Amino acid sequence: MAARMNPKWNGQFSCFDLVARTAENAGRSSRTIVRVRDIEIGASDFVVMAGPCAVESEDQLLRTAEAVAKSGARFLRGGAYKPRSSPYAFQGLGEEGLKLLAKARAETGLAIITEVMSEEDVELIAEYADIMQVGTRSMDNYALLEALGSCGRPVLLKRGMTARLEELLRSAQVIAMAGNPQIILCERGIRTFETATRNTLDIAAVAVLKRVSHLPVIVDPSHAAGIRCLVPALARAAIAIGADGLLVEVHPTPERALSDGDQSLSFPEFRQMMSDLEPYFSLRRQDAQARLELIAMGAD
Ligand code: PEP
Ligand code: MN
Questions:
Q1: What is the set of domains in the chain, with CATH numbers?
Q2: Which residues line ligand 1 (CB under 6 A)?
């Protein structure tokens, strides 16, 4: 069904007219589909992006790439430029890390998503990445967002950890206005009073964003959970509520990871999660098929 405009949200979001539904485009049934190689994000497939928080070494990355590809991931994630909360923590391998990502792509066929932190790095990272990731700490970095307008690659825009959805869409609008409509929104948990999880996964945000925007929405259960045993449950919630994919941290030896080891899945844990999600993947494909039939009948 075409998502109808809701009076509650009309004024709040529709001013971001390139990324939100507006009175003018509310009737159109088409959503933005972000295409990367042969992968469609926002269409009938649920797209899983997996890999280490940070690219640490060739061995770590290639083994992870092979394992996640075997379990059904389509993208390899891995930070070469790391925004760390502590200035004393590992900051990433820089261009060396990008080269390792390109090597992993060549060996496995996985597409690459990696973070860009500064407008000065956009050109270089765009030479290697299939999707440019904007992290939670950069959602309001307008110089970066504007530079991504002409980078020639889709952008995955993470929600700032204290940002309202209105502010997320405002940042998306900045990228779109700068010339790049290929944007994927990402819910990765927000700061609340709760400390049992690293962040609070705002699962309702996915449902709101799917209703008020035509952009694909993916969920990062790893940074929301902060602890690996919760990741599969949050992943299930994400697909059940209608997200278009996941961004998940996986590491060959999570206990030795240089960053975010506590929330990273081991290879067997990732394989198990993907196999447990299989019924949801197929429900999603059936649902998409039914929707296409409705559109063909003119009922959407
Ligand atoms: C990451 O994906 O490793 C990352 C740093 O995420 P976030 O920006 O959501 O903290
Ligand atoms: Mn991380």
A1: 7-296 (3.20.20.70)
A2: 53, 79, 83, 135-137, 158, 188, 220, 223
Kindly give the distance from the C-alpha atom of residue 250 to the centroid of ligand 2, in angstroms, as a whole number. 10
Ligand nearest to the backbone CA of 251: 2
Residue 284, both tokens:
């999603």
pLDDT 10s per residue in the chain (300 long)? 445 566 778 778 989 999 999 877 766 557 999 999 999 999 999 999 999 999 999 999 999 999 999 999 999 999 999 988 888 889 999 999 999 999 999 999 999 999 999 999 999 999 999 999 999 999 999 999 999 999 999 999 999 999 999 999 999 999 999 999 999 999 999 999 999 999 999 999 999 999 999 999 999 999 999 999 999 999 999 999 999 999 999 999 999 999 999 999 999 999 999 999 999 999 999 988 888 788 778 765
Ligand showing the shortest atom-to-Cα distance for residue 260:
2
The reported pTM is: 0.95
* Nearest partner of 215 among 44, 20, 45, 74, judged by Cα: 20
Cα of 197 to ligand 2 centre, how many Å? Answer: 15
